[in-house]
Amino acid sequence: MDKPMPKIAFKGMSLGLKCRDFFRPRKKILSDLDIKPNFKVLDFGCGHGSYIPLLSKAVGEHGKVYALDIHPLAIEKVESLILKSNLSNVETVCSDCSTGLPDKNLDFILLYDIFHALSYKIKVLTELHRILKDEGVLSFSDHHMKENDIISEMEKRNLFKLHEKKKFTYSFVKKHTA
Fold this sequence. Notes:
The protein is globular and about 40 Å long. The relative contact order is 0.15. Helices cover 36% and strands 25% of the residues. It is built from 6 helices and 7 strands. The longest helix is centred in the N-terminal third of the chain and has 17 residues, at 7-23. It has a 7-stranded mixed beta sheet, with helices on both faces.
């Protein structure tokens, strides 16, 4: 099992991400995605919640956003954001992998800037494959990885295949297993 980073490291990372978000707004990244009202979306490794308000607005009042992170401070920050911004369609999940969601439940999964740090990549990808709808999309971005490594890592387990390279992200779709 992966373990959360020390609290001081998380606080430092959060500060750095807030600066990043100022200079490179998350809205630009999400412009790559076709998230529609009523969709169910998971932000896997949500951190301090950069994408959560935008996702909440995109899916609308009848959609659902799940914010998953291993770090209790991340969950606290997102829960505070939920209360402060009155995001009634957002739910947090504190976990390193297991989502607790039903099979084939999600339209979109965001896997951004976390994959390189995962110890149990196959376990995480297996869980994401399980909860993604057959026509769903796994949106991937990790600035710590090169394009060839991203595609290789995502496709070598025979769970996902590259659908499209976008401006800021890679879209993967499920490979259907027998």
